[in-house]
Hints:
Strand content: 25-35%
Radius of gyration: 46 Å
Distance between the termini: 106 Å
Low-confidence stretches: none
Helix content: 40-55%
CATH class of the largest domain: Alpha Beta
Number of helices: 14
CATH architecture of the largest domain: 2-Layer Sandwich
Number of domains: 3
Shape: elongated
Amino acid sequence: MEKPDIVTTLQAVITGINENIVIIDSAGTILHATEGTKDLVNDVDLTGKSIFGFIEGEASKIRKWIETLSESNFKEVKLKMLRDGQPFPARLHMAAWKTGDGQFVIMATIVDSTYIERRKRDLLRKALTIEQLSKSRKIRTGRLNDAIHEILELSSKAVQVERVNAWLFDAAATRIECVGNYDTAAHHMSPQESLPRIEMPKYFGLFETRKIILTSDAQVSGTTRELLDSYLIPNNIHAMMDIPIRIEGEIIGVICFEQVEHSREWSLEDQKFGLIAAQMVSLAVETFNRKKIQQELEQTLRQQQRLMTESNHRIKNNLSVMASLMRMQIAKAKDPFHRGLMQDSVNRLYSIASLHDLLAETGSAHRVNFATYAGKIVKELQDSLSDPEKPIQLVQSIEKCELSTSLAVTLGLIINETVTNAFKHAFTNSAAGLIRIELQLEGANAKLSISDTGQGYNQDELITGHGMEIIQGLVDHIDGKLTTSTDAGSTIIVEFRLS
């Protein structure tokens, strides 16, 4: 069939173009092909051959499209084409024109999508690796050796490289020590000697100005000349991609991707993945260091708690011994006045000892449950001051709160002094009575009330006598306010801040 004019026109248009273009008729016969197309399918003489002979399978979509053409049209299709009998992925962009005799001529641009497909697989592989590393429990829990192994192994597969290793500087930054060297040939971590920094000053100096050090042929590159004899040649390394590992901007090490036996060009995707891998190593190191510091702090805290518990035990025991010795001396006192003074001192010692006993029990060093502490004081007072001939009941109503040890011991001494005074002086003319101890919280403030149902006192006598100087001094110590009342029995109220 004589070529229509449009074929001649299309031939003239595509002559000299580097694209892979063929012109076919409505039967699929190749009328003309560019030199690029001949190279693509590795056939120097395409004219007269059927395009379908270079398509794997039936190519029914193309046949049907050609057969149903009724006017000029365009179509794009993805398929497998053949080169030397071997399939490769391709895309055809086809445009159909109607000729003067009612036939159609089609111009098709052929794109070899092998690189596109390879790049898509490469990007997918790297993306899945990044997702897997981002979920790594080994990194998140600070298991440094396991985390490094995982990062290096997955990175070698993601970048398709034979060796990936991680290096960290020693404490003095004089040597760089290998903390992991994954070799795909061995399928496991391999040992690697440390390298002295002084022998590679120019190489390590590059990390101050570059994010990545790239060499496609490391054994001839001036960038890595310092590594040639000591590292590159012994390990048969021909291409390197080295990324610094940083924490807060400071270089702590390097992650190295190494191609053995032949050179390699590192793609932009390789470089981006390498930066992420370096960040993963940095995260693993930071997590490990943070966990190590946390463990050290916890150990120090446990030691301090043990020391504090032992200290409280010893203080409590020493105070109890002193109280016991003083109690033994009470029997030797020659008059009730001196026996009372000594008993008051014993009660004060027991009041302080009760605090240290509670601290030892709870393991706390700075705060104490005040209701529990006050209960211990009240019980000691009840045991030491009770008189069968004068049954006096002690009742406490303390809101739940934790107070500092210094505030608690001061309030404990106030309770001790006030209750002791009430036992001695408020019930001289009665056979029974009640002493009530209450603590009410009002936001950041609190109010301690101690009242009795005794005979009461003269207001001036209550303020100036019966141990009130001691109580006033204790109230001043906590910057509190002291008020007294003698309306029904006697009452003292201490208002203070909780902190």
